[in-house]
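In the design runs reported in the main text, the only information available to the sequence generator was the tokenized backbone. The following block is the verbatim input for one such run; it is reproduced so that readers can re-run the procedure and compare outputs position by position.
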């Protein structure tokens, strides 16, 4: 029994020594590590993965206390910092072409790939060529060419960090809005103005909105739902508002919209709502006499309703 105890202690000491040695080796490499832009929460794992495989590695510093906009947004931001290549945007360029990157396209907000194709088709009707989609359906090589585009379109809050990076590094202007069938023309016009430097970054769905009290309430991510609200007002003449359950989105909301965090607060905010458009999981906290339209959202209910 004593011999087994001694062996167990020796094994434990060897494990501790290995961990300490690994940490000290990592610390010795830290300046080169940070220089390569690979500073991460789980630095040791990323560093050794990179040295063993030659594949660039980094992790996103999340702690489980933030919503998906924070984590997914940082992940795309880090890809933009590390992999998008400087390019001569005038080289071999067709002056008549109009190119755009779609930023913030994730399954969490847009579900299956067919929905992404619809976004692209809505822009193509107005003469826009989609150069890259961040990040559904395109590979890393395509994303690396993003600096060649004329303008960026932020289609969800997840893409805003990328847009700011691409503006800071490559001076590519950006517009915010989701090109649904009712708002695609307005977004196309805003992209044209941004691409020709005739306007500052525009939140298209907050422009020319109805001022009266809303009788339609949409719950969800601010850019997609804000664009849908703007489209409803334009198509049907019914005032709409957005209740956003996500953090870090205040700048993407309009005067009638509201950031609502937590189930109890959302239930209170919905008490006066007559027509509600939201993920089906919100139905139990909606007033019994309200009209509820289901709009499944992967980030809220997963694939239950798909």
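Verbatim output:
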């Amino acid at each position: 029994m004593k011999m087994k105890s001694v062996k167990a202690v020796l094994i434990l000491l060897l494990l501790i020594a290995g961990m300490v040695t690994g940490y000290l080796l990592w610390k010795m490499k830290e300046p080169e590590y940070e220089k390569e832009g690979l500073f991460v929460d789980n630095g040791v794992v990323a560093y050794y993965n990179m040295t063993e495989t030659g594949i660039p590695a980094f992790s996103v510093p999340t702690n489980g206390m933030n919503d998906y906009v924070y984590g997914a947004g940082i992940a795309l931001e880090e890809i933009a910092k590390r992999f998008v290549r400087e390019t001569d945007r005038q080289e071999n360029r067709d002056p008549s072409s109009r190119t755009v990157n779609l930023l913030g396209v994730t399954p969490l907000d847009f579900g299956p790939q067919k929905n992404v194709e619809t976004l692209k088709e809505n822009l193509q009707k107005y003469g826009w060529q989609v150069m890259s989609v961040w990040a559904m359906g395109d590979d890393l090589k395509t994303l690396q060419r993003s600096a060649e585009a004329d303008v960026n379109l932020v289609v969800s809050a997840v893409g805003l960090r990328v847009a700011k990076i691409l503006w800071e590094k490559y001076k590519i202007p950006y517009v915010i809005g989701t090109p649904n069938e009712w708002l695609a023309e307005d977004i196309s016009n805003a992209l044209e103005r941004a691409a020709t430097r005739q306007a500052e970054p525009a939140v298209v769905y907050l422009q020319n909105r109805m001022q009266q009290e809303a009788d339609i309430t949409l719950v969800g991510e601010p850019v997609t739902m804000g664009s849908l609200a703007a489209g409803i007002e334009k198509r049907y003449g019914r005032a709409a508002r957005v209740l956003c359950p996500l953090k870090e989105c205040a700048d993407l909301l309009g005067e009638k919209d509201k950031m609502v965090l937590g189930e109890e607060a959302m239930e209170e905010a919905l008490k006066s709502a007559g027509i509600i458009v939201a993920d089906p999981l919100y139905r139990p906290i909606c007033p019994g006499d309200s009209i509820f339209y289901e709009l499944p959202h992967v980030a809220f209910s997963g694939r239950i309703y798909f």
